[in-house]
Structures are given as C-alpha cells and as structure tokens.
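Q: What does the assembly look like in three dimensions?
Context provided by user:
Components: four
Sequences:
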Amino acid sequence: MKQGNRHDLPAEPDYILISKALEVVSGKWRLYLILQLGEETRRYSQLAEMLPSISEKVLAGELKALVVLGVIDRKVYAEIPPRVEYTLTSKGRLALPILRLLQEIGRIFN
Amino acid sequence: MKQGNRHDLPAEPDYILISKALEVVSGKWRLYLILQLGEETRRYSQLAEMLPSISEKVLAGELKALVVLGVIDRKVYAEIPPRVEYTLTSKGRLALPILRLLQEIGRIFN
DNA sequence: CCGTATCCGAAATGATACTG
DNA sequence: CAGTATCATTTCGGATACGG
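A: Here is the predicted structure of the complete assembly.
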C-alpha cells in the first residue's frame, strides 16, 4: 500500500489558476496598462495618453475589468470637471513584480 | 539645463516586449500546454489527452505557433505509424520558471 | 498516428458620435 | 473630464470531415 504520498503530484498545472492569471494579463492592452500604472496614481486622461492607440471603449472596458478583478482601484472625485483616479490595489501591488518578470519572457523570445 | 540623463525613463514598459510575451502565453491553451509539457518529452497524442477539451485544429495550431516562437521543438520520426515528439527548447526551459510563477497571479486573484 | 481544410458562431477590438 | 452607445470589422475557438 501507499505510504507517505508527499510529492506524489509533480506540481501539475491547475487550469483554474491559469485561467484566472490569464484574465489579469490577457487582452492586447491589459498587461501594458498595469505595468504603465505601476505604483503610481493616474487619472483616466493620463492613462489614455500613455496608450496612444487604444480606443476609448476599450480603455474604459479594460479599466472596468481590472477593477472587478481586484487589480486596480477607481476613485471618483465629485468635482467639476470630474476627476477619476486609478491605483493598484494591494493585491495588484503584490502581483506587480511577477508581471514585470513577464517582460523578460518577451526578451527571451525576441 | 539637463545633464546626465541616465535613468530618465523610469523603466517604461516596452510594448514590443510585452506583445511578444503575450504571444507566448495567450490563447486559452498555450500557457497550459507549456506548463503541462514542462521538462518532459511528449507525443502529440499524449498532449491531446492532457488537454481533454481542446479541438484538434487548435492543438495543432498552438503547437505550430509555439514551434515558430521558439518555445518548443518538434521532432518527427519516420516510422509507421508516425511518431511526433515535442520538447521545450532551451529558451523554453529558460522561460519555464517565470511561467510557473504566473500561476501565483491566479492564486492572488482567486 | 498526426495532423489539415472548411465552415461557423462567439468574442475581442476598433471608429466614431454622443452624454452626465 | 470621463466615460457610454452603436455599429463594423477582425480574430479566435470549436465541430467535423478528410488526408499523408
């Protein structure tokens, strides 16, 4: 009979976790958006300038998705004209170093 | 006037690198495929079993894309019946630890 | 055994005009 | 300023049948 099955599974990849990770980075702009934001706080218009060729619909949609995922926070100021600021959440800051490492992958295969 | 502009750019994310990195991981199955393969050598049919719900067209397409990217090697044996084996390239093995880290991102946002 | 060819529907992306 | 609404276009994933 089997005894002591520590290490029985050779760290089999978990599709659920991978899908969730891909939600965070996937899309043409999502990862780039997170990396551009970094530890800073940025207004909507600043982000729009940083990603020159993204359409408004897509930018707004990606930001909304990242808020829902818990990657970024959205703070609205009741001013005129309106001001909306985006910042990484604590989870987002936790993930940031790993996401920065992903750029190394790009370097490897370039 | 400005002097000594080392570090003028605060490590601005490079869209080219990021795109390349996303090519490696993106798609519903690509990252999962790499992680399942790991350091092993696997036949086409073995990979097909590991990803039960992937269609043949997509599996063949993803494998071909990963070969072109330089992530995996494809080795054909002139036997009957034919045998085709896939293995990570040296670049692929270099990238593997980072790709495994990506699963942690999934854990963070679960 | 290891794919390719074809077709289809769904999803992602984008251009543009408009609004609180 | 910070988005939403609408429509057009492109890309993706999947089912299935067939080929070397």
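Follow-up: Confidence is low (pLDDT under 50) at residues 1-5 of chain B.
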